[in-house]
Design goal:
Length: 127
């Protein structure tokens, strides 16, 4: 049986792991969103595949940051993810020559963040 200190140490290590993953994930989204990917991405079989990718990226963005923050204020983290997605879309239009903002990307990002919030609420309720 684990002692209280062992459990707290394990929890702390998991939170640190999620914090590191959240930072790496955020930096990856930023880089992938602001560099030109023309001719470098594979063509996918069905229409609007990029919207599914956007939703997945922001699902995990919200999930990782919520876990890093001990699942506190999940709604706030979801709203920050949506805001971050909007900022990235604006930056695509203003600082890149090959990318442009897309309202449907913002919707996909928001949907992914919202779904993560719902999943986290269910997980936290069952813990």
């Amino acid at each position: 049986m684990k002692s209280c200190c062992q459990v707290k140490t394990t929890q702390h290590l998991l939170e640190r792991k999620y914090f590191l993953i959240a930072i790496i994930w955020t930096l990856s989204i930023t880089a992938l969103s602001l560099i030109s990917l023309e001719g470098r991405t594979p063509s996918l079989a069905f229409k609007n595949t990029d919207k599914v990718v956007h939703a997945l990226f922001y699902f995990f963005f919200t999930f990782f940051w919520s876990r890093a923050c001990k699942n506190k204020k999940v709604i706030l983290i979801m709203l920050l993810a949506v805001l971050y997605g909007i900022v990235i879309e604006v930056l695509q239009t203003t600082i890149t020559a090959t990318r442009e903002a897309d309202f449907y990307d913002v919707l996909a990002n928001s949907l992914g963040a919202f779904l993560a919030m719902l999943v986290l609420k269910v997980i936290n309720k069952n813990l």
